Amino acid sequence: MDRSHAADCGVAFTPLTPDDRLARLGRASDAFAARLRTGDLDARVPACPGWSLTDLGRHLGGVHRWARTAVAESRSGQKTFDDAPVERDQLVDWFRAGAGSLIDTLRSAGPAAPCWTIASEPHIAGFWFRRQAHETVLHAHDAGVTDLLDPAVALDGIDEVVTVMFPRQVRLGRTAPLPAALALAPDEGGRWVLAGDGTGPDPVPDATVSGPAEAVLLLLW
Q1: Largest CB tally within 10 Å, which of 8, 25, 52, 78?
Q2: Comparing C-alpha atoms, which of 57, 64, 25 is closest to residue 143?
């Protein structure tokens, strides 16, 4: 479902292409692996309370493997990192192997391939091109790699939150429906409205959040 309103603010919002999302997934995975290689593995991650950089690396590597299973086997695997290594060299190798396998699987399948997803629709691999690009870019940002979150990917990420992730969180009972309507108007373009459970028609907003797209996306997450 496309509920974006790019025309409302006079500047068009153009979603990223599958090829661009796959390229961004690759760059973000490489940057995150480099952070694991050189960073303080015991450092706390402010955006992920209670987690260290090691925990974040094990989480993201586990998510990559889970998403690969969804595409390759069209089912939900175990999203766990209990068996992930903690020693630096082994952790980096394990993370790179999972990211590489995911990217290879997505490239081989193509975005139109049918598969299991966490979205209500459509159930195609293109969902994972987008979800894993944003998962990896945002967690790289959490780890201190801040130059990947440019306006194009931030706008695409805002659209994903509004059209997919927020409705899913409400549907699963993880967050409550919004009691008022909130407009999102990033400086770089696009306009969205969040209201209720995120699936209904857009009402007149009660308030508007504006600012750089990066800041709006990080606020949403």
Answers
A1: 25
A2: 57
